[in-house]
Specification:
With about 400 residues, the protein is of the alpha/beta class. It folds into 2 domains: about 5-170, VC0802-like (2-Layer Sandwich); about 180-390, HUPs (Rossmann fold), CATH 3.40.50. Helix content is about 40%, strand content about 20%. Strands 1, 2, 3, 4, 5, 6, 7, 8 and 9 form a 9-stranded mixed beta sheet that branches. The protein has a 6-stranded mixed beta sheet with strand order 14-13-10-11-12-15, with helices on both faces. Strand 7 and strand 8 form a beta hairpin. Helix 8 crosses helix 13 (about 375-380). The radius of gyration is 26 Å and the shape is elongated. The chain binds adenosine-5'-triphosphate (ATP) and magnesium ion.
Amino acid sequence: MKEIILLKEGEMALKGLNKRTFEETFIKNLRHRLKPLGKFDYSRSQSMIYAAPLDDNIDMDEAVKRASKVFGAAAICRAGITEKDFEIIVRDVLARFGDELSRARTFKVAAKRSDKSFPLKSPEICAELGGRILDRFPHLEVDVKSPDITVNVEIRDTNAYIHSGNRPAAGGIPVGTSGKAMLLLSGGIDSPVAGYMMAKRGIDISAIHYVSPPYTSERARLKVERLCEKLSPWCGDTAFYCVPFTEIQEALRDNCPEELFTILMRRLMMEIAQRICEKKGISALITGESVGQVASQTMGAIVCTDNACRMPVFRPVIGMDKSEITEIARKIDTFDISIEPYEDCCTVFTPKHPKTKPSLEEVIAAQNSFDFEPLIAKAVEQTEEKFFGIS
Ligand code: ATP
Ligand code: MG
Protein backbone atom coordinates (compact mmCIF):
# COMPACT_ATOMS: atom_id res chain seq x y z
CA MET A 1 0.00 0.00 0.00
CA LYS A 2 1.33 3.44 -0.90
CA GLU A 3 2.17 5.61 2.06
CA ILE A 4 2.38 9.31 2.75
CA ILE A 5 3.49 11.58 5.59
CA LEU A 6 0.77 13.94 6.83
CA LEU A 7 1.82 17.00 8.80
CA LYS A 8 -0.85 19.01 10.53
CA GLU A 9 0.00 22.67 10.68
CA GLY A 10 0.43 24.21 14.11
CA GLU A 11 0.43 27.94 14.74
CA MET A 12 1.03 28.75 11.10
CA ALA A 13 -2.52 27.67 10.29
CA LEU A 14 -3.63 30.84 12.11
CA LYS A 15 -1.42 33.24 10.18
CA GLY A 16 -4.15 34.75 8.01
CA LEU A 17 -2.76 36.46 4.94
CA ASN A 18 0.79 35.35 5.75
CA LYS A 19 -0.12 31.69 5.97
CA ARG A 20 1.07 30.94 2.46
CA THR A 21 4.58 32.28 3.14
CA PHE A 22 4.78 30.20 6.31
CA GLU A 23 3.63 27.07 4.46
CA GLU A 24 6.08 27.64 1.63
CA THR A 25 8.96 28.08 4.08
CA PHE A 26 7.88 24.94 5.93
CA ILE A 27 7.83 22.92 2.71
CA LYS A 28 11.21 24.31 1.68
CA ASN A 29 12.69 23.25 5.04
CA LEU A 30 11.01 19.84 4.89
CA ARG A 31 12.22 19.26 1.34
CA HIS A 32 15.76 20.07 2.42
CA ARG A 33 15.63 17.56 5.31
CA LEU A 34 14.11 14.73 3.27
CA LYS A 35 16.13 15.23 0.09
CA PRO A 36 18.98 12.88 1.11
CA LEU A 37 16.41 10.06 1.48
CA GLY A 38 14.89 10.27 -2.02
CA LYS A 39 12.29 12.18 -4.00
CA PHE A 40 9.02 13.34 -2.45
CA ASP A 41 6.07 15.27 -3.81
CA TYR A 42 4.87 18.07 -1.55
CA SER A 43 1.40 19.59 -1.45
CA ARG A 44 -0.84 21.40 1.00
CA SER A 45 -4.51 21.70 1.59
CA GLN A 46 -6.76 22.57 4.52
CA SER A 47 -3.90 23.24 6.96
CA MET A 48 -2.27 19.92 6.17
CA ILE A 49 1.06 19.39 4.44
CA TYR A 50 1.49 16.18 2.46
CA ALA A 51 4.85 14.57 1.72
CA ALA A 52 4.37 11.66 -0.69
CA PRO A 53 7.40 9.50 -1.55
CA LEU A 54 8.01 9.21 -5.28
CA ASP A 55 10.83 6.65 -5.20
CA ASP A 56 10.39 3.06 -4.08
CA ASN A 57 12.51 1.92 -1.15
CA ILE A 58 12.52 5.25 0.66
CA ASP A 59 13.27 4.72 4.34
CA MET A 60 9.92 5.94 5.68
CA ASP A 61 10.87 5.45 9.34
CA GLU A 62 13.78 7.83 8.87
CA ALA A 63 11.64 10.22 6.83
CA VAL A 64 9.05 10.45 9.62
CA LYS A 65 11.82 10.93 12.18
CA ARG A 66 13.30 13.80 10.19
CA ALA A 67 9.96 15.40 9.38
CA SER A 68 8.98 15.37 13.04
CA LYS A 69 11.90 17.72 13.76
CA VAL A 70 10.91 20.38 11.25
CA PHE A 71 9.37 23.33 13.10
CA GLY A 72 5.89 24.37 11.98
CA ALA A 73 3.84 21.19 12.28
CA ALA A 74 1.88 20.34 15.40
CA ALA A 75 1.26 16.68 14.61
CA ILE A 76 2.54 14.05 12.24
CA CYS A 77 1.43 10.67 11.00
CA ARG A 78 2.38 8.06 8.49
CA ALA A 79 -0.72 7.04 6.61
CA GLY A 80 -1.75 4.57 3.94
CA ILE A 81 -3.29 6.13 0.85
CA THR A 82 -6.58 4.69 -0.27
CA GLU A 83 -9.50 5.66 -2.50
CA LYS A 84 -12.59 7.61 -1.56
CA ASP A 85 -14.75 4.53 -1.92
CA PHE A 86 -16.16 2.90 1.19
CA GLU A 87 -15.65 -0.71 0.03
CA ILE A 88 -12.05 -0.02 -0.91
CA ILE A 89 -11.51 1.69 2.43
CA VAL A 90 -12.83 -1.39 4.23
CA ARG A 91 -10.57 -3.66 2.16
CA ASP A 92 -7.49 -1.52 2.83
CA VAL A 93 -8.22 -1.06 6.54
CA LEU A 94 -8.50 -4.83 6.97
CA ALA A 95 -5.28 -5.32 5.05
CA ARG A 96 -3.32 -2.59 6.86
CA PHE A 97 -4.58 -3.20 10.37
CA GLY A 98 -5.43 -6.94 10.14
CA ASP A 99 -2.47 -8.18 12.18
CA GLU A 100 -2.85 -5.57 14.88
CA LEU A 101 -6.63 -6.02 15.09
CA SER A 102 -6.30 -9.78 15.42
CA ARG A 103 -4.03 -9.26 18.44
CA ALA A 104 -5.99 -6.41 20.05
CA ARG A 105 -8.86 -6.76 22.51
CA THR A 106 -10.51 -3.40 21.94
CA PHE A 107 -10.61 -0.85 19.14
CA LYS A 108 -12.38 2.19 17.85
CA VAL A 109 -12.78 3.95 14.52
CA ALA A 110 -12.22 7.70 14.28
CA ALA A 111 -13.32 9.35 11.07
CA LYS A 112 -12.88 12.81 9.59
CA ARG A 113 -14.58 13.90 6.42
CA SER A 114 -13.34 17.19 5.03
CA ASP A 115 -14.66 16.28 1.56
CA LYS A 116 -18.36 16.77 2.17
CA SER A 117 -19.28 15.08 -1.12
CA PHE A 118 -18.35 11.69 0.35
CA PRO A 119 -21.70 9.92 0.84
CA LEU A 120 -21.18 8.81 4.46
CA LYS A 121 -20.90 11.32 7.28
CA SER A 122 -18.13 10.84 9.87
CA PRO A 123 -20.32 9.06 12.48
CA GLU A 124 -21.68 6.82 9.73
CA ILE A 125 -18.15 5.91 8.60
CA CYS A 126 -17.33 5.00 12.21
CA ALA A 127 -20.45 2.88 12.63
CA GLU A 128 -20.25 1.10 9.27
CA LEU A 129 -16.53 0.49 9.30
CA GLY A 130 -16.67 -0.54 12.96
CA GLY A 131 -19.34 -3.09 12.05
CA ARG A 132 -17.27 -4.51 9.21
CA ILE A 133 -14.24 -4.82 11.46
CA LEU A 134 -16.35 -6.67 14.06
CA ASP A 135 -17.67 -9.02 11.34
CA ARG A 136 -14.11 -9.99 10.53
CA PHE A 137 -12.78 -10.00 14.10
CA PRO A 138 -15.69 -11.03 16.34
CA HIS A 139 -13.43 -11.27 19.41
CA LEU A 140 -12.98 -7.47 19.42
CA GLU A 141 -14.92 -5.02 21.52
CA VAL A 142 -15.43 -1.34 20.86
CA ASP A 143 -13.90 0.94 23.48
CA VAL A 144 -14.14 4.63 22.67
CA LYS A 145 -12.24 5.80 25.77
CA SER A 146 -8.98 3.84 25.72
CA PRO A 147 -8.91 1.35 22.90
CA ASP A 148 -5.87 -0.86 22.20
CA ILE A 149 -5.97 0.44 18.65
CA THR A 150 -7.62 3.35 16.88
CA VAL A 151 -8.33 3.10 13.17
CA ASN A 152 -8.33 6.63 11.73
CA VAL A 153 -9.96 7.35 8.41
CA GLU A 154 -9.63 10.79 6.85
CA ILE A 155 -11.58 11.63 3.70
CA ARG A 156 -9.78 14.56 2.13
CA ASP A 157 -9.52 16.39 -1.21
CA THR A 158 -8.00 13.83 -3.52
CA ASN A 159 -7.72 10.67 -1.45
CA ALA A 160 -8.69 8.92 1.69
CA TYR A 161 -6.02 8.17 4.28
CA ILE A 162 -5.89 5.50 6.95
CA HIS A 163 -3.57 5.55 9.92
CA SER A 164 -3.32 4.64 13.57
CA GLY A 165 -3.14 8.17 14.98
CA ASN A 166 -1.16 11.38 15.10
CA ARG A 167 1.95 11.90 17.10
CA PRO A 168 3.19 15.26 18.32
CA ALA A 169 5.54 16.92 15.83
CA ALA A 170 8.12 19.66 16.43
CA GLY A 171 5.63 22.52 16.99
CA GLY A 172 6.81 26.12 16.60
CA ILE A 173 6.93 28.06 13.35
CA PRO A 174 9.14 27.41 10.32
CA VAL A 175 12.80 28.38 10.58
CA GLY A 176 13.43 31.39 8.36
CA THR A 177 10.14 33.18 9.03
CA SER A 178 11.46 35.27 11.96
CA GLY A 179 14.80 36.68 10.79
CA LYS A 180 18.34 35.75 11.76
CA ALA A 181 20.16 35.62 15.07
CA MET A 182 23.61 34.65 16.31
CA LEU A 183 23.78 31.99 19.02
CA LEU A 184 26.68 32.24 21.44
CA LEU A 185 27.37 28.54 21.57
CA SER A 186 29.55 27.19 24.36
CA GLY A 187 30.16 23.54 25.06
CA GLY A 188 27.70 23.60 27.95
CA ILE A 189 24.16 22.35 28.40
CA ASP A 190 22.31 25.66 28.17
CA SER A 191 23.31 27.35 24.93
CA PRO A 192 22.36 24.50 22.53
CA VAL A 193 18.95 24.45 24.21
CA ALA A 194 18.67 28.23 23.79
CA GLY A 195 19.43 27.85 20.06
CA TYR A 196 16.82 25.12 19.69
CA MET A 197 14.21 27.25 21.47
CA MET A 198 14.73 30.30 19.26
CA ALA A 199 14.82 28.20 16.07
CA LYS A 200 11.45 26.88 17.20
CA ARG A 201 10.20 30.46 17.00
CA GLY A 202 11.23 30.62 13.35
CA ILE A 203 14.67 32.19 13.77
CA ASP A 204 17.43 31.21 11.40
CA ILE A 205 20.41 30.50 13.65
CA SER A 206 24.13 31.03 13.11
CA ALA A 207 26.52 30.06 15.89
CA ILE A 208 29.62 31.72 17.29
CA HIS A 209 32.16 30.09 19.58
CA TYR A 210 35.20 31.60 21.30
CA VAL A 211 38.36 29.56 21.76
CA SER A 212 41.51 30.31 23.71
CA PRO A 213 44.27 27.99 22.59
CA PRO A 214 46.48 26.74 24.17
CA TYR A 215 44.30 27.15 27.29
CA THR A 216 41.41 25.46 25.49
CA SER A 217 42.06 22.36 23.39
CA GLU A 218 41.22 21.40 19.84
CA ARG A 219 39.01 18.67 21.29
CA ALA A 220 36.97 21.28 23.16
CA ARG A 221 36.38 23.08 19.89
CA LEU A 222 35.44 19.85 18.09
CA LYS A 223 32.95 19.15 20.85
CA VAL A 224 31.18 22.43 20.10
CA GLU A 225 31.20 21.64 16.38
CA ARG A 226 29.50 18.33 17.18
CA LEU A 227 26.89 20.24 19.20
CA CYS A 228 26.32 22.50 16.22
CA GLU A 229 25.81 19.44 14.01
CA LYS A 230 23.33 18.02 16.53
CA LEU A 231 21.23 21.15 16.19
CA SER A 232 20.90 20.92 12.41
CA PRO A 233 17.94 18.49 12.27
CA TRP A 234 16.02 21.21 14.17
CA CYS A 235 17.68 24.43 13.07
CA GLY A 236 18.63 23.53 9.48
CA ASP A 237 21.97 24.52 7.98
CA THR A 238 24.04 26.56 10.38
CA ALA A 239 27.01 28.85 9.79
CA PHE A 240 29.55 28.40 12.57
CA TYR A 241 32.05 31.14 13.50
CA CYS A 242 35.07 30.32 15.61
CA VAL A 243 36.74 33.33 17.23
CA PRO A 244 40.35 33.27 18.50
CA PHE A 245 39.98 34.80 21.96
CA THR A 246 43.33 34.13 23.63
CA GLU A 247 44.91 37.55 23.20
CA ILE A 248 41.84 39.32 24.51
CA GLN A 249 41.71 37.09 27.57
CA GLU A 250 45.42 37.60 28.23
CA ALA A 251 45.00 41.37 27.88
CA LEU A 252 42.10 41.24 30.34
CA ARG A 253 44.14 39.20 32.79
CA ASP A 254 47.09 41.58 32.56
CA ASN A 255 45.26 44.91 32.55
CA CYS A 256 41.93 44.72 34.37
CA PRO A 257 40.79 44.12 37.95
CA GLU A 258 40.54 40.39 38.50
CA GLU A 259 37.09 40.45 40.04
CA LEU A 260 35.69 42.09 36.87
CA PHE A 261 37.38 39.67 34.50
CA THR A 262 34.31 37.58 33.68
CA ILE A 263 31.98 40.48 33.11
CA LEU A 264 34.48 42.29 30.88
CA MET A 265 35.09 39.11 28.94
CA ARG A 266 31.37 38.74 28.34
CA ARG A 267 31.09 42.35 27.13
CA LEU A 268 33.92 41.76 24.67
CA MET A 269 32.31 38.52 23.48
CA MET A 270 29.15 40.48 22.77
CA GLU A 271 31.07 43.17 20.92
CA ILE A 272 32.79 40.67 18.64
CA ALA A 273 29.53 38.80 18.00
CA GLN A 274 27.80 42.04 17.04
CA ARG A 275 30.52 43.02 14.58
CA ILE A 276 30.20 39.67 12.82
CA CYS A 277 26.39 39.99 12.87
CA GLU A 278 26.64 43.41 11.26
CA LYS A 279 28.84 42.00 8.50
CA LYS A 280 26.48 39.07 7.90
CA GLY A 281 23.13 40.84 8.15
CA ILE A 282 22.16 39.19 11.44
CA SER A 283 20.08 41.29 13.82
CA ALA A 284 20.01 39.70 17.28
CA LEU A 285 22.05 37.60 19.72
CA ILE A 286 21.05 34.48 21.65
CA THR A 287 22.68 33.19 24.83
CA GLY A 288 22.06 30.34 27.23
CA GLU A 289 22.03 32.55 30.32
CA SER A 290 19.72 31.74 33.22
CA VAL A 291 19.32 34.23 36.07
CA GLY A 292 21.36 33.41 39.13
CA GLN A 293 22.98 30.28 37.71
CA VAL A 294 26.56 31.57 38.06
CA ALA A 295 28.27 34.86 39.01
CA SER A 296 28.15 36.20 35.46
CA GLN A 297 24.39 35.66 35.32
CA THR A 298 23.20 37.75 38.25
CA MET A 299 20.88 40.64 37.45
CA GLY A 300 23.75 43.07 37.99
CA ALA A 301 26.05 41.15 35.64
CA ILE A 302 23.36 40.91 32.98
CA VAL A 303 22.80 44.68 33.20
CA CYS A 304 26.52 45.20 32.57
CA THR A 305 26.53 42.71 29.68
CA ASP A 306 23.44 44.24 28.06
CA ASN A 307 25.01 47.67 28.24
CA ALA A 308 27.61 46.45 25.74
CA CYS A 309 24.88 45.36 23.30
CA ARG A 310 23.26 47.43 20.61
CA MET A 311 21.19 44.48 19.39
CA PRO A 312 18.44 42.62 21.21
CA VAL A 313 19.75 39.66 23.20
CA PHE A 314 17.38 36.70 23.39
CA ARG A 315 17.82 34.54 26.47
CA PRO A 316 15.12 31.90 26.15
CA VAL A 317 16.26 29.85 29.17
CA ILE A 318 16.55 32.89 31.44
CA GLY A 319 13.76 31.76 33.79
CA MET A 320 14.35 28.04 33.63
CA ASP A 321 15.86 25.71 36.20
CA LYS A 322 18.82 23.55 35.23
CA SER A 323 16.58 20.47 35.42
CA GLU A 324 14.13 21.97 32.94
CA ILE A 325 16.94 22.92 30.57
CA THR A 326 18.44 19.45 30.94
CA GLU A 327 15.16 17.83 29.99
CA ILE A 328 15.18 19.67 26.66
CA ALA A 329 18.89 18.96 26.16
CA ARG A 330 18.13 15.23 26.46
CA LYS A 331 15.23 15.51 24.06
CA ILE A 332 17.33 17.21 21.38
CA ASP A 333 20.19 14.80 22.10
CA THR A 334 22.81 17.40 22.97
CA PHE A 335 23.08 16.47 26.66
CA ASP A 336 25.59 13.62 26.35
CA ILE A 337 27.97 15.78 24.32
CA SER A 338 27.50 18.80 26.60
CA ILE A 339 28.57 16.90 29.70
CA GLU A 340 31.85 15.74 28.16
CA PRO A 341 34.46 17.33 30.40
CA TYR A 342 36.33 19.75 28.16
CA GLU A 343 37.39 23.22 29.19
CA ASP A 344 35.66 26.36 27.89
CA CYS A 345 37.32 29.76 27.50
CA CYS A 346 35.00 30.98 30.28
CA THR A 347 36.85 28.73 32.70
CA VAL A 348 40.26 30.16 31.75
CA PHE A 349 41.65 32.75 34.22
CA THR A 350 38.38 32.80 36.18
CA PRO A 351 38.65 35.08 39.21
CA LYS A 352 38.50 33.53 42.68
CA HIS A 353 35.97 36.12 43.78
CA PRO A 354 34.01 37.45 40.81
CA LYS A 355 31.87 40.50 41.57
CA THR A 356 28.23 39.52 41.60
CA LYS A 357 27.08 43.14 41.92
CA PRO A 358 29.43 45.08 39.68
CA SER A 359 28.57 48.73 39.13
CA LEU A 360 28.23 49.68 35.51
CA GLU A 361 30.51 52.70 35.99
CA GLU A 362 33.42 50.65 37.35
CA VAL A 363 33.00 48.07 34.60
CA ILE A 364 33.03 50.69 31.85
CA ALA A 365 35.98 52.47 33.48
CA ALA A 366 37.92 49.18 33.64
CA GLN A 367 37.19 48.44 29.99
CA ASN A 368 38.26 51.96 28.94
CA SER A 369 41.53 51.70 30.85
CA PHE A 370 42.96 49.54 28.08
CA ASP A 371 42.64 49.92 24.30
CA PHE A 372 40.95 46.65 23.26
CA GLU A 373 40.05 47.93 19.81
CA PRO A 374 43.04 46.51 17.90
CA LEU A 375 42.54 43.10 19.57
CA ILE A 376 38.81 43.10 18.82
CA ALA A 377 39.45 43.99 15.18
CA LYS A 378 42.09 41.27 14.92
CA ALA A 379 39.83 38.62 16.48
CA VAL A 380 37.01 39.51 14.05
CA GLU A 381 39.48 39.43 11.17
CA GLN A 382 40.80 35.99 12.15
CA THR A 383 37.42 34.41 12.82
CA GLU A 384 36.97 31.16 10.92
CA GLU A 385 33.69 30.31 9.25
CA LYS A 386 32.32 26.80 8.63
CA PHE A 387 28.97 25.30 7.73
CA PHE A 388 27.08 22.47 9.32
CA GLY A 389 24.09 21.06 7.60
CA ILE A 390 21.73 18.23 6.82
CA SER A 391 23.22 15.12 5.29
P1 ATP B 1 26.26 26.92 28.89
O1 ATP B 1 25.72 25.71 29.56
O2 ATP B 1 25.46 27.33 27.70
O3 ATP B 1 27.73 26.79 28.60
P2 ATP B 1 26.83 28.17 31.34
O4 ATP B 1 25.84 27.83 32.37
O5 ATP B 1 28.10 27.40 31.31
O6 ATP B 1 26.11 28.08 29.93
P3 ATP B 1 28.38 30.61 31.12
O7 ATP B 1 29.62 29.83 30.93
O8 ATP B 1 28.33 31.75 32.06
O9 ATP B 1 27.12 29.70 31.49
O10 ATP B 1 27.95 31.17 29.72
C1 ATP B 1 26.77 31.88 29.56
C2 ATP B 1 26.47 31.96 28.08
O11 ATP B 1 27.54 32.62 27.40
C3 ATP B 1 26.39 30.61 27.39
O12 ATP B 1 25.10 30.06 27.51
C4 ATP B 1 26.72 30.96 25.98
O13 ATP B 1 25.61 31.52 25.31
C5 ATP B 1 27.77 32.03 26.16
N1 ATP B 1 29.13 31.45 26.14
C6 ATP B 1 29.88 31.04 27.16
N2 ATP B 1 31.08 30.58 26.74
C7 ATP B 1 31.09 30.68 25.41
C8 ATP B 1 32.05 30.37 24.38
N3 ATP B 1 33.22 29.84 24.65
N4 ATP B 1 31.69 30.63 23.10
C9 ATP B 1 30.49 31.15 22.82
N5 ATP B 1 29.56 31.47 23.73
C10 ATP B 1 29.84 31.23 25.02
MG1 MG C 1 29.42 27.27 29.72
